[in-house]
Amino acid sequence: MAIIVIILTLPWTCPNILAQTSIALGPAAKFSVPAYNGTISFAENGNYSTATFEDNTWIFTNLRLNNSQPLENLEISAKNSDVTVNSYLETTVNFPNDRLSYSVQGKGVQVVNLGLGVYGGSNVDWVVTSNGTFLNNGWSVSHNGTVTVTGLTGNITVIYFGFTSQLGASNLPFYEQHSVAIAVAIAVAATVAAAVVVKTAVKRHAVKEELSKNA
């Protein structure tokens, strides 16, 4: 009987224990990086379990933003820039990917790690866009999946295609580990090539018409 009474009264006698499991988050909250002259904020309301500051990096656990999916771990830092995290989305359909979108003011440096572990270190599996444009330069990824973006402003999206992690076998041949990534690259290349062909054909047609008028 005593055990039942304790269980029933626990939520009332220990309210702080329950309250500390989730910390509210809103756009007004600023997480500064004083040594780097940077700040981190969030565009949406949400909550998190913990936020710790280590080595000039903010580490969030169990981050949940409105209009986003839960993100178990997020490590993020900003140097000479102000970063606003907009959303995090994850999908496992067709082309599995994780994508973190943020906006940035100031041509500084942002460092992001989505907690993907050892499988996050292949440059092939990563894409970074700036204001909707795919980038070849201005970013890099380390062996542990830490992405560094340099000198960009506006809307940035960091995308990870989890092909290697899903296969779970780094000893497979390269083309098997990254077969989907290669397919995507081929599709993009084919689209660009087709656009060039069409543009060239239109230009040739215009030249022929011009020559016919002058004949």
Count of the separate structural domains = 2
Taken in chain order, the helices and strands follow as: HHEEEEEEEEEEEEEEEHHH
Q: What is the overall shape?
A: elongated
Low-confidence stretches: 3-19, 164-172, 174-180
Rounded radius of gyration (Å): 24 Å
The helix content is 25-40%
Oligomer: single chain
Q: What's the rounded overall pLDDT mean?
A: 78
Q: Please, how many helices? A: 5
Total DSSP E strands: 15
Distance between the termini: 107 Å
In what range is the share of β-strand residues? 35-45%
Main sheet overview: 8 strands, antiparallel
Structural class: alpha+beta
Q: How does this structure look, described?
A:
- The protein is an alpha+beta fold and 215 residues long.
- The chain folds into two domains: 145 residues; 38 residues.
- The protein is built from five helices and 15 strands.
- The strands form two sheets. Strands 1, 4, 5, 6, 7, 10, 13 and 14 form an eight-stranded antiparallel beta sheet that branches. A seven-stranded mixed beta sheet has the order 2-3-8-9-15-11-12, with no helix packed on it.
- It is elongated and about 80 Å long.
- The N terminus is likely disordered.
Q: What's the quick description here?
A:
The protein has 215 residues and is α+β, with helices and mostly antiparallel strands. Helix content is 29%, strand content 39%.
